[in-house]
Amino acid sequence: MSIRLGDVAPDFEQDSTIGRIRFHEWLGNSWGVLFSHPADFTPVCTTELGFTAKLRDEFTKRDVKAIALSVDPVDSHVRWIDDINETQNTVVNFPIIADADRKVSELYDLIHPNANDTLTVRSLFVIDPNKKVRLTITYPASTGRNFNEILRVIDSLQLTDNHKVATPANWQDGDEVVIVPSLKDEDEIKQRFPKGYRAVKPYLRLTPQPNR
Fold first, then answer.
1. What is the pLDDT of residues 71-90, one digit of tens each?
2. Mean pLDDT across the stretch 35-54?
């Protein structure tokens, strides 16, 4: 099953390090970051989960819940968390799903046979409060994720959901944004963007970032 942007994230019930989870119920009205890792006790994954734990405050202020997954069982996850906490100088503060029967992996297409026919790939999904998939990224097993980029995309999604803007290349929170081309009415533009805008081209109008 291929998951596309705008699809409802598949719901599931599965064991985890905090007990049985019903995914949509656990997510509630928050944003979610669901990410898979190939296996426990692997070096890149250890750094990724440690870094995710350190982002707790950043996720909290964006109302984001993080949840990880691999096909290893709960007891393996629990032992591995001790290693993560020790080596990454943190405390893992989010659940890790134990997908031993591959139910979730199949729902989210996390096993790519041409890469490895038993281990999950390094995929990540950003899910909004309506349970819609807003971002999908899949990395090779050898490459750790850039979680700062994931935060950047969440900032962009939350901003553009609330304002008629888009974010340009390499945008960072606080930079200028683009007024969407469909917005034509000058009175509405003045109301929405009281700081004004500069038209580089009729279709490329830049304005200071509105408050999120």
1. 899 999 999 999 999 999 99
2. 93
Residue 45 appears among annotated catalytic residues: yes
Cβ–Cβ contacts within 10 Å for residue 112, how many?
15
What is the rounded distance in angstroms from the CA atom of residue 36 to the CA atom of residue 121? 7
Q: Which of 32, 153, 163 is nearest to 94 (CA)?
A: 32
Instruction: Tell me how far apart the alpha carbons of residues 12 and 104 are, in angstroms, rounded to a whole number.
Output: 7
* Marked catalytic residue, from 9, 21, 34, 45: 45
SS (H, E, C) the chain: CCCCCCCECCCCEECEECECEEHHHHHCCCEEEEEECCCCCCHHHHHHHHHHHHCHHHHHHCCEEEEEEECCCHHHHHHHHHHHHHHHCCCCCCCEEECCCCHHHHHCCCCCCCCCCCCCCEEEEEECCCCEEEEEEEECCCCCCCHHHHHHHHHHHHHHHHCCEECCCCCCCCCCEEECCCCCCHHHHHHHCCCCCEEEECCEEEECCCCC
pLDDT in tens, 5-18: 999 999 999 999 99
